[in-house]
Amino acid sequence: MATLKLKQALIIDGKVVEGSEHTPTTITLANGGYHSAQDIVVADAFGTATLWTTLGGGLTTYTHGFIISNKDGKVELRTDNGTPEFVVLEVKAGVLTFLPGIVGGDTTESLDGAILVDGTDFDDVDRIEFQRDAAESSGDALVSLHLFN
Hints:
Layout: E1 3-6, E2 11-12, E3 15-16, E4 25-28, E5 34-41, E6 48-53, E7 64-69, E8 73-79, E9 85-91, E10 97-100, E11 102-103, E12 123-124, E13 127-132, E14 141-148
Antiparallel strand pairs: 1-4, 2-3, 5-14, 6-13, 7-10, 7-14, 8-9, 8-13, 11-12
């Protein structure tokens, strides 16, 4: 099985803040699937780039994902199982943004003990799009998406 190691720390002015560094977390991936996409959203436009749809790169779903851009923007996660649902996350320039693979819940049981129903209470994300935050002329947005399953 493939694994993904995540390590986090607070870095200010290129220096790790003492005590903020965490032991790496190892995540075992279900089947080792990986998809990477890069795109450019041009300056002076509110253009949108579709970075992934179901079956993109051979993945029907993903469990862990992240996106990074050199410009501020928004990433939209969409499902279309029944009534479409949308989640929009802010992406700050140069900051890794983690993406949930499920919208509406991440477990089969809610906090009150009720059983959640796939396709009703939560859905797998099936489309990821990135859009510039503003039409400005400071250069193109270079966007990278990485999905793991």
